[in-house]
Amino acid sequence: MTAYEHVLIARQDISATQAEGLMTHFAQILKDNGGSIHDSEYWGLKTMAYKISKNRKGHYLLVKSVSPAPAVAEMERLARLHDDVLRIMTIRVNAHEDKK
To answer: Using CA of residue 76, residue 82, residue 88, residue 94, what is the dihedral sign?
Structure first.
């Protein structure tokens, strides 16, 4: 399986706990499809460089996983359909860095 880093941007008008709930929801989708979660972080509400769907700010979420490609494809598909997710970016990495 391959290591991935997923960055999601959620709408600004949801709460921080709802944003963290989104993070656990998409992490669970990866787990259900045969992946494992290495780490997840809530980066907070940040101002974006440009508006996305009339939103100036967004909740930034990071999920690090080791998953098969079909699990990642399913998670990205469901994220694109979710109303609270503005953007998702998935990057394949060689290995996850350990926290210090």
So the answer is: negative
Q: List, in order, residues 6 or more apart from 50 with CB less than 8 Å away.
A: none
Q: What is the pLDDT of residue 4?
A: 95
**What is the pTM assigned to this prediction?**
0.88
Q: Could you report the per-residue pLDDT of 1-45, keeping only the tens digit for each?
A: 899 999 999 999 999 999 999 999 999 999 999 999 999 999 999
- Say how far apart CA 8 and CA 23 lie, in whole Å: 8
**How many of the other CB atoms lie within 10 Å of CB of 76?**
18
Mean pLDDT of all residues belonging to the chain: 93
Would strands 55-67 and 36-52 be described as parallel, antiparallel, or unpaired? antiparallel
Which residues on adjacent β-strands are paired with residue 96? none
Structure tokens at 25: 């929801």
* Separation of alpha carbons 30 and 67, rounded Å: 7
